[in-house]
């Protein structure tokens, strides 16, 4: 079928809306008409690595829409279902069977190869393959092919798809790092470094969990103001003096639980230094490959640093939990979202980079 997609052709080049041919769903596939899709830093990071040799690429991995057709082997999903699309996992490897699908042994092949697991392309243009299947969806398009392992049915008919689309990755990552990994108790002193969509969804999750204090460290003034409106106990500008001392003062001796979303080695090192004894820092931001830490501080104070992908979440279980929190008013992610027409995708990218939009969501 002929669809419209936001195509990337080279690093630094803008997205262009073009017509491509999308395969009909195979027996194990689901055809989704995309209503909305979140714009994530991961999309832009992948785009920055595209060369002309890669050919055209369709990205997008926070899609939400309505199922139009399902293959004969699909169960649990029907035409007409409203769905959120998340990451793919094989469901057969040891990590998947242990309940850790975010660390699936086949993750790179299923999410980042640009093709189906069998190596075939899902999209074409003038007979030539177009790289797609990004996170098993490539949802920067009017339609996407997905699978049962990365489709979550939205039971609440009143849920706004543009609001809940980022639950597929960004909001799931931030909230999951808090609720699934850090698991703060009512005495917890929580700090998050970076107030983008991931960081602010983590703030909302920490508040929903009842953390005693919540500190946000963010250099962009408009994002600090939003964190303050969302109820952060303290908001710190890291460019204004000693950030470690400021975080320790705001948390009464250092955070017991902390999250870094920046991936900046110097920020991560400061976050570890600021931790209270026996505190834990979770890192979710991709950055430089090397990091210098004070091992004596780490060991003598019982501090822990842990990586985390997709909030350690099983989407079919965790996303419904977040939907319930949102419906109850305890996870107001709508405050983070700015919507754009898909035709304005390049403006959305510019606004996100400039800090004018925390979480752009594109709608058809």
Description:
With 364 residues, this protein is of the alpha/beta class. The chain folds into two domains: 2-170 and 312-363, Quinone Oxidoreductase, Chain A, domain 1; 174-309, NAD(P)-binding Rossmann-like Domain (Rossmann fold, 3-Layer(aba) Sandwich), CATH 3.40.50.720. 27% of the residues lie in helices and 24% in strands. The protein has helices spanning 41-47, 94-97, 107-111, 161-164, 170-182, 197-208, 221-229, 243-250, 265-274, 295-300, 315-327, 345-353; strands at residues 2-8, 16-22, 29-38, 57-58, 63-70, 82-85, 123-125, 128-130, 143-147, 151-153, 189-193, 213-217, 234-236, 257-260, 280-283, 304-307, 337-341, 359-363. Strands 3, 5, 6, 9, 10, 17 and 18 form a seven-stranded mixed beta sheet that branches. The radius of gyration is 20 Å and the shape is globular. It starts with a strand and ends with a strand. 49% of the residues are buried.
């Amino acid at each position: 079928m002929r669809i419209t997609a936001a195509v990337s052709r080279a690093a630094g080049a803008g997205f262009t809306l073009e017509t491509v041919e999308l395969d009909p769903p195979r027996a194990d596939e689901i055809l989704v008409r995309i209503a909305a899709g979140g714009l994530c830093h991961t999309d832009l990071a992948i785009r920055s690595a595209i060369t002309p040799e890669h050919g055209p690429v369709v990205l997008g991995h926070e899609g939400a829409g309505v199922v139009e057709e399902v293959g004969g082997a699909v169960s649990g999903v029907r035409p007409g279902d409203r769905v959120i699309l998340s990451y793919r996992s094989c469901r057969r490897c040891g990590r998947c069977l242990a309940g850790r699908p975010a660390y699936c042994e086949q993750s790179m092949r299923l999410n980042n190869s640009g093709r189906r697991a069998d190596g075939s392309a899902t999209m074409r243009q003038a007979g030539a393959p177009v790289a797609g299947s990004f996170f098993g969806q490539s949802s920067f398009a009017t339609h996407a092919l997905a699978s049962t392992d990365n489709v979550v049915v939205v039971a609440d008919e009143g849920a706004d798809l543009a609001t809940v689309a980022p639950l597929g990755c960004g909001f799931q990552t931030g909230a999951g790092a808090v609720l699934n990994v850090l698991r703060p108790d009512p005495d917890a002193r929580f700090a998050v470094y970076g107030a983008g969509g991931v960081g602010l969804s983590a703030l909302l999750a920490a508040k929903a969990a009842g953390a005693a204090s919540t500190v946000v460290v963010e250099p962009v003034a408009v994002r600090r103001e939003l964190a303050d409106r969302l109820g952060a106990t303290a908001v710190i500008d890291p460019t204004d003096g000693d950030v470690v001392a400021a975080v320790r003062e705001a948390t009464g001796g250092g955070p017991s639980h902390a999250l870094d979303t920046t991936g900046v080695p110097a920020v991560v090192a400061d976050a570890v230094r600021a931790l209270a004894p026996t505190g834990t820092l979770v890192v979710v931001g991709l950055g430089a490959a090397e990091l210098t830490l004070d091992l004596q501080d780490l060991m003598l104070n019982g501090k822990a640093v842990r990586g985390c992908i997709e909030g350690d979440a099983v989407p079919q279980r965790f996303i419904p939990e977040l939907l319930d929190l949102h419906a109850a008013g305890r996870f107001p992610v709508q405050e983070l979202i700015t919507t754009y027409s898909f035709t304005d995708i390049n403006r959305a990218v510019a606004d996100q980079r400039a800090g004018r939009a925390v979480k752009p969501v594109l709608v058809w």
